[in-house]
Amino acid sequence: MMFCSRKRCAAGTVTEFMMQLSALKWKVKNFTTGDIYVSVGEYDPENNMRIAAGSSDIVVDRVPQTGTRRTSRRLQVYTPSDGEVEIVMV
Predict the structure, then answer these.
(1) What is the mean pLDDT of the chain?
(2) pLDDT-based confidence at 1, cuts 50/70/90?
(3) Angle (nearest 5°) at CA 45 between 44 and 51
(4) What is the pTM for the complete model shown?
(5) Terminal-to-terminal C-alpha distance of the chain
(6) What is the Cα–Cα distance from 37 to 77, expressed in whole angstroms?
(7) CA separation (Å) from 5 to 8, 19, 54, 83, 85?
(8) Gap between the Cα atoms of 62 and 72, Å rounded
(9) How far is residue 11 from each of residues 15, 18, 21, 28, 82, measured CA to CA in Å?
(10) Exposed/middle/buried for 50, CB within 10 Å: 0-12, 13-18, 19+?
(11) Buried/exposed code over 5-15 (b: 16+ C-beta within 10 A; e: otherwise)
């Protein structure tokens, strides 16, 4: 079973993805024309992952200070340019 969410994101905004189940790893696909910035849970401009335009990467849910694994179902994505972002449970 695959859990997936694809949304159109407006430029300069943070878009929330609330997934059906929690997971340790998520594959984030960037279909926008610019880089996107992904945070697990609440968007944090100081602690996020950059994904280049037209590419994808795996986001792992860990406590930044300790590296301890956790699971989440909420991801937030900041997009400087308009476009679609897709998140898939890995």
Answers:
(1) 93
(2) low
(3) 100
(4) 0.90
(5) 11
(6) 6
(7) 10, 7, 17, 14, 8
(8) 9
(9) 10, 20, 27, 17, 5
(10) exposed
(11) eeeebeeeeeb
pLDDT at 2: 67
Q: Which amino acid is at 62?
A: R
CA angle 26, 28, 33 (to 5 degrees): 170
d(CA 65, CA 80): 27
Closest residue by Cα to residue 11 from 90, 67, 79, 64: 79
All residues at 6 or more sequence positions from 44 whose CB lies less than 8 Å from its CB, including other chains: none
SS3 content of the chain, % helix, strand, coil (to 5): 0, 60, 40
